[in-house]
Amino acid sequence: MAFPSVLLVLSLLAVPAVYGVDHTVGGSSGWDQGVNFASWAAGKKFVVGDNLVFSYGSSHSVDEVSQSDYSTCSASKPINSYSGGKNTVALNKTGSVYFLCPSSGHCTAGMKLSVTVAAASTPTPSTPTPTTPSTPTPTTPSTPTPTTPSTPPKEDTPPSSPDTPSTSPSAAVGGFGDMNKLVVGVCIVFAGLMGFMG
């Protein structure tokens, strides 16, 4: 489940976010006579995704025109026409775009705008190299070597005579003292093995 989540995050990081800039044409004066639109545009960079915002009074409107109509201030064949006092025009392709005010005499008085639109520069994302999660190598539990309980050294005891009762604990249980230790030792080793394997 974690692997698909990682892929989703990486794919989102690889997609650059592109935000357009709104350029208010003419600055605080807006789309109006007396503004030097060539000077206003000269210090700005226009890229695909940006917008031109035209704000103007009722005596104006905006026409997008061809380069030749821009040069001659002709509004007879506009590409697009805008009116209403405020318009936002998206810059959606590279190259030069041309605008003018079609009201009589306004274009020849300087109410026209030309901007060159560049491609949006997006940083080239570095493609992360996908890594395969390492699978832990299973380890085989080490098997402890069973140890046999050490046999205590034999004591030098004189052989018991039938008349003298033996007081040795081994003899008291019928000579099975060493056997009991062996059984207990084997049980401990067996329990240890079961703990490792369980």
UniProtKB/TrEMBL annotation:
Compositional bias (Pro residues): 125-152
Domain Phytocyanin: 21-119
Annotated keywords: Glycoprotein, Metal-binding, Signal
One Pfam family cited in the UniProt record for this chain: Cu_bind_like
Gene3D superfamilies: Cupredoxins - blue copper proteins
Identification of the protein by name: Blue copper protein-like
Source species of the chain: Heracleum sosnowskyi
Recorded superkingdom: Eukaryota
GO cellular component: plasma membrane
Residue numbers spanned by region Disordered: 120-172
Gene Ontology MF terms: electron transfer activity; metal ion binding
Keyword Signal: yes
Signal peptide: 1-20
Keyword Glycoprotein: yes
